[in-house]
Amino acid sequence: MIKLAGIDVGNDSVKVALDGSNEPIIVPNVVAPGYDRHILQEEDSPLKALDVVIQSPKLSKRNQRYFVGLLAVENQDNTELEETDNKALSDQSLVVALTALAYAGVKAESASSSTFSGSDEVEYIIGTGLPVRTYAKFNRTFEERLVGEHEVTFLSTPQLRNRRVKVIIRRAIVSIEGAAALYHISTYDSLQIRDEEVYYGCIGVCEIGALTTDFPVVKRMSIDNQFSTGEQMGIATYLDPIMRDIEDLYGYRFPSRAKLVQRIRQRQFTIQRIGEGQADIKPIVDQYFSRAAVRIVEMIKKRWNKYPDIQCFYVIGGGAAALKPYLLEAAGSIRLRFVEDSELQNMYGYLKLAKSKSSQPSAI
Ligand SMILES: Nc1ncnc2c1ncn2[C@@H]1O[C@H](COP(=O)(O)OP(=O)(O)OP(=O)(O)O)[C@@H](O)[C@H]1O
Ligand SMILES: [Mg+2]
C-alpha cells in the first residue's frame, strides 16, 4: 500500500508525518561517518541510534555508513549544514530524509505489534518543499532526487538491527516553505476550509528556519511571485556566533548547534566549566536573539510597507518559537501572529498538499 507523507527537509531537522499517524518523527539534520561502535547499553529508542548504510542512485557515494540524527549530534566528526549548502542538492539532507522515511515506514507498519516486524518495503507519495529563493530553479531537481528506489539498512539501531528497508518514492510534490504552512493553518485534516480569512486573504508569512528565512506572500492560497522573497539567514546564523562567544569567554565548546539548541529549549543556561565552577550563558543568548529579532521585524515592516494589502503576518518555523519573546518586544505596536508547534507547520502543510494533489493526475 502506498503511504502518504509530508516531509520537511530542514537544515536543522528533518520532520516527517505520515497520513493517519499524529506523531511526527523528527531527526536532527546531522550526520557523522559510521563505524562499529561499542555498545555498553542499548539505547531505548531507534531514533537515538540511527546507524545506517544507504544505497541510492541519487547519492554521490554508494554504500556509505552513517550515524544519523541524535547519534551524530555528540560525535566529534559530525557535520551540520552551512549557509552555502543547497537543500535540493545536498547529499546529507537526502541521507537524513531517506533514513527518516525508512524508519517512519517500518514504525507505521508495526504500530499494531510491539516489534518492528513489518514489511521491508515502503512505498510513498510525499509532499515536501524548498525555500522561496531555491524553489524556481531547483524544484524539478529536488523532485528527481527524491523519486525512485533507495535502500536503507539499519545496523546497530536498537529494534531494527540489520533490517534492510527499501524506500520507494513514487511521487514527490514540491511546494514552498512557509506557504505550505499557511495551507495547513487554514484547513482541516479533511482539507475543508477552516479559516476563510486566511484561506481567501492576502497573508504575509515570515518563516524562520535554521539557515533561511522565507517571506512568501500568499493571496487566496496562491504564491505572489512579485512580493515573495527569502533571506539567507536563520537561527543558525546567530547560534554559531553564540557558540563562538561562549568558547572565547568560558572555554566551553558545544559539539554542535543542535546541542546548544537543546539547552536553549530546556532553558538550561548554566554551563559547567572545567574546574572553574559554572557560567551563565543567557546574557549571550539574549544579546544575539534580540539582535536577530530586531532584524527580522525590520524585514517584516519593510515588506508590509511595500505591500500594504497584506492583512496579517504569521511568524512561524522553529525560529518563531525561539525568538517569540524577543520578536514581541521588537515589534512594538505591530501585531504579529504566532501558532503552536510552529516548526511543524510546513510538514503538516506538505502532507495536506500531497493528499490534495495525489488525488489529481500526476501532470503537475
Ligand atoms: N523552541 C525552540 N527554542 C529554541 N530554538 C528552537 C526552538 N525550536 C526550534 N529551534 C531552532 O530554530 C531553528 C529553526 O528550526 P526549524 O525546525 O524551523 O529549522 P529547519 O526547518 O530545520 O531549517 P530550514 O528552514 O533553514 O531548513 C533551528 O536552529 C532550531 O534548532
Ligand atoms: Mg524550515
UniProtKB/TrEMBL annotation:
Coiled coil: none annotated. Residues 6-178 form the Actin-like protein N-terminal domain. It comes from the Bacteria. Pfam families: ALP_N, MreB-like_C. Residues 206-327 form the Actin homologue MreB-like C-terminal domain. This is ParM/StbA family protein. It comes from Paenibacillus hemerocallicola. The lineage of its organism: Bacteria, Bacillati, Bacillota, Bacilli, Bacillales.
